[in-house]
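Case study: GMP synthase [glutamine-hydrolyzing].
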Amino acid sequence: MQHNNVLILDFGSQYTQLIARRVRELNIYCEIHPYNKIPNNLETYKAVILSGSPNSVRGGAVLHPELKHIRGEKPLLAVCYGAQYLAHFSGGEVAPSNTREYGRANLSFIKEKEDFFHNIYTGSQVWMSHSDTIKTLPDNGVLLASTEDVENAAYKIEGEQTYAIQFHPEVYHSKDGKQLLENFLVHIAKVEQDWTPQSFVEETVEALQKKLGNDRVVLGLSGGVDSSVAAMLLHKAIGKNLYCIFVNNGLLRKNEFQDVLDQYKDMGLNVKGVDASARFLDALAGLSDPEEKRKAIGRVFIEVFDDEAHEISDVKWLAQGTIYPDVIESVSVSGGPSATIKSHHNVGGLPDFMKLKIVEPLKALFKDEVRRVGASMDMDKNLLGRHPFPGPGLAIRILGDITAEKVRILQEVDAVFIGNLKKWNLYDNVWQAGAILLPVNSVGVMGDERTYEKCVALRAVESTDGMTADWVNLPYEFLQKTSNEIINKVKGVNRVVYDISSKPPATIEWE
Ligand code: XMP
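Here is what the predicted structure looks like once written out:
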């Protein structure tokens, strides 16, 4: 693709993806690469941004980027660690900071009327998060702005298009952060703002046509946003040569299989619905360990999908709805692998024995961009606005072993909860919601009868990417009505609780 690319070199900051999202919001295409794996085709990048890092330039694992062909050659913006790196290794000094340098601060400008601060005024709030501070500027450094606690909050290098800032423009609390990125990228680096959902669709469709020719492609639809948008793009590109398979694993929401299948057909997709519920339930019989359940579901999914794919003659490609956060190579600042908390079976893709080439039309997009691309193709708002739903479905919301009766109970409970969220116009304010069937019975009374039945938990969270989440403060009246309705309507349930744990330390799913 011939876009004006921006290269973001990642030093392992928790905010690096946010930088990329802010840049994309400016309709500018950018890519994140690890600081030590600078792409060979540097000439295609119009500007470079250095991210922050949990590391220090003063010792421990100092992360050294190779800036030989960047510094002085291209417009460069260094954020936090990046700014400290430029100072420390080019004649300046970085030291541990004495005062607290975390949280909000306000800028005052030393040099007014810089393009870099176009439309940004004295007092502008910025977000600081660092424990080292720049004591002296590097050679040829010119101070541009300070805050009360941080003297060297922003500087530039005379004779270069190099700018450095100690604060984080990517974070929401830096009120003019996006303006600052725009100033650097558009006014100083002269990068064009030509990355839009429409341009993405046009270019991707053309590229897919070129790549796939008359080949047949198979794609597994899940009912979720990513696979649906991937399917629409491929459908636009190759029409009936796209064969979609939508598997019912018996662990979807109530009526979801039929409803979504109908919707796919209305969209003109060449889709085959495969009801393999019994096969999944058989494989799950007697399993109660969450990871074993995930593995069993992953295995059966591959078997079913493979059987179906073999029915299509001469298929050459497997399409997947992989998105950008799945492919960004993370920088391990400690050097060790990060711990596996839950194995998400749909991330690893399908095994080699399928011998298909892989095509991933969304692998450059963030989730919100996938939705915007879908909207630009006039896809149904309800489909695009659906909450994320885990691949193993209700299996990881039925704690312990799984039976057909438990699935039925949970589907009914979930249908009441989600239905009410929609009725009360709360659905779109919640990032993800669902019900969990607990492996406990509790005593109740109904009429004059003692009952001893199941307890369910309701969970609704706010989040941006599922990495962190907070429980949603749903109105008491909503909870009261929903609880009553569940207990009255769903046979086998006599108690409802609401989960008020955030992630971390809890996770979104209970298993
Ligand atoms: P946790 O429970 O890890 O969930 O806080 C974060 C997000 O990931 C989803 N999730 C899964 N998705 N396969 C999936 O496709 C899985 O095994 C799986 N486990 C959790 C979860 O629904 C939430 O959106």
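For the exam, be able to explain this: The chain has a mean pLDDT of 93.
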